[in-house]
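Support request, please re-run this one:
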Amino acid sequence: MTASILITAAYLLGSLSSAIIVCRLMGLPDPRTQGSNNPGATNVLRIGGKKAAAITLIGDSLKGFIPVLIANLMAVEPLVLAGVALAAFLGHLYPLFFGFKGGKGVATALGVQFGIGWEIGGTIALIWLFIAKGLKISSLAALISMALAPVVVWYFWHAPELITMHAIMSVILFWRHRSNIQKLLEGSEGKINNEQEPAGKE
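Re-run finished. Output below.
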């Protein structure tokens, strides 16, 4: 019963789209109809600026962090912890309250990783930061850091359930970033310092 409640609550919390809520509260256009049409922090940056994007990023991260941290503090079994983490992540990608059309999941995944363990989240965040600073491409940094997430989890916590869950998350993230991958292959993916562009541009 406890596991079911935790997993359901994690999905429902994940279903609260920070991007859409922030844009509505700040009088900005719906991120699903502007820029890249993705309800995530990067697109909110394009249409609303740094403040709106920062709030969205924090909100998306907390959706993953809070339910996983609670489950972790309750000392649930690794399988239940993995279920809570995946539920929060899928809630962001396929939100019940917003027509099952959500973001790409990087911030929520990172929140999940910090909820599991600060050393896991911190290591993955440092990988992202190192790559992003060097290559100036946010999507590439996200893809590489999340691809390495199962390895990081394995190093710090030898729980097959959590490693498998992160592998599933990584596969889904790559699928959700398939348009970014195509642009990377074409050499047309935007740089981080060019992210804040007029609405309507990728």
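Residues 29 and 169 are 29 Å apart (CA to CA). The chain has eleven helices and no strands.
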